[in-house]
Amino acid sequence: MRDIVIIGAGASGMAAAIGAAAQGAKVTVMERNEKPGKKIYITGKGRCNLTNASDMETVRSNVITNPKFLYSAFHAFDNQDIVRLLEEEGCPVKVERGGRVFPVSDHASDVTAALKRRMDRLGVKLCLHTRVLSLLIEEGAVTGVQLRDETTGREQAVRADAVIVATGGCSYPSTGSTGDGYFFAAQAGHTVTERRPALVPFETKEDWARQLQGLALRNVQVRIKKDGRMLWEEFGEMLFTHFGVSGPVLLSASSVVGRRLPAVLEIDLKPALDEEQLDRRILRDFAQAQNRQLKNALSGLYPARLIPVMIRESGLDEEKAVHDVTAAERRRLLTATKRLTLTLTGLRGFNEAIITQGGVSVREVKAATMESKKAAGLYFAGEVLDVDALTGGYNLQIAWSTGWLAGQSAGADKK
């Protein structure tokens, strides 16, 4: 029976534990927090968007960094496999818009509980309040870990046939993702690529965006450009914040354009209408409010809080009577509606990032097994690797797939 130690009881760590134990291995999971799956509890706003129901080629097409590396992992354990596992353990799921898969209960805790039940049935030992300090490496092979009991302060060495690093990245450090896995990788001679916050809100130059804090815009088209070149385009929902902009269409954009800032954000507030149709719509609204001031005639076009911004960005006088608005002025309002412009200056930090971009170089990891090419018996899974994807359940699928493959590979009898 192979003795496997897994560092981290997050999504990838629990998948690794189940994969290894299913091979008949003796599995111990070291978790520094007071409970497993702490980051899972906050995913999907507490509902846990656990995977995406699309075919696996579509899932792979939503991977931003190193998608080819994940062929074997996705083949070994796909979206149907994680759904089957959860439902077998009493956690039924449902599919929502965009193929997003959630537990029927809308409680992320049910996902963690189902995984824990499977781990318990397979005899996995879970050590909470336990922090791994370093790897034990002898003659180019990992032989165990040095750990500390966080409740007693006692340190000890634990021997193992294989160690799986499933520590997560740097995002949401309050959940325990403080970058320990990168230290372990470096200790074994691995290259760790630059880490950046990803799936994270943007900061903007313009103050008016911050003045709209809390305002959500639905069914808008956003475009991000730099030097006239299109970097990102998507339809959906966005949100103004106290520092700039956020929301689903922009969180995904951050993973693609984050390294190319500053850039220009253009918001099309009426994407269903071309400019000619929008002009007729504005004329119709104006005809019904000819004697009103402009500031009181736009409620049919924009949310109330956005009206002063639209007038100001169009260079118009809010006190002007609608019947005195010229065709040229109306054109400026139309242009602002189709291309409301902001300057994206930077990203928020890891405290607000859903995932980490960058990590252990996949060139130094065997894609077929998740084993290190630098140190025998060392495996990596999940966010600690230099792989990441867009929003929609894809990042958790990466965690399940790489975790399962690492566990299966580490748990296989190599004697």
Please render the helix and strand layout as text.
Layout: E1 3-7, H1 11-21, E2 26-30, E3 51-52, H2 56-61, E4 63-65, H3 71-76, H4 79-88, E5 93-95, E6 100-103, H5 108-121, E7 125-127, E8 130-138, E9 141-149, E10 155-159, E11 162-165, H6 180-187, E12 196-198, E13 202-204, H7 207-211, E14 216-226, E15 229-240, E16 244-246, H8 248-257, E17 263-268, H9 275-287, H10 307-313, H11 327-338, E18 340-347, E19 355-357, E20 378-380, E21 388-389, H12 394-411
Parallel strand pairs: 1-2, 1-11, 2-7, 11-20
Antiparallel strand pairs: 3-6, 4-21, 5-6, 8-9, 9-10, 12-19, 13-16, 13-18, 14-15, 14-17, 15-16, 17-18
Describe the structure.
This protein is of the alpha+beta class. It has 2 domains: 3-196 and 355-411, FAD/NAD(P)-binding domain (3-Layer(bba) Sandwich); 201-348, Orthogonal Bundle (Helicase, Ruva Protein, domain 3), CATH 1.10.8.50. 29% of the residues lie in helices and 26% in strands. The protein has a 6-stranded antiparallel barrel with strand order 13-16-15-14-17-18. A hairpin with a 2-residue loop joins β14 and β15. α1 packs parallel to α5, α1 (11-21) runs parallel beside α12 and α9 (275-287) packs across α11 (327-338). The model has no long low-confidence stretch (mean pLDDT 96).
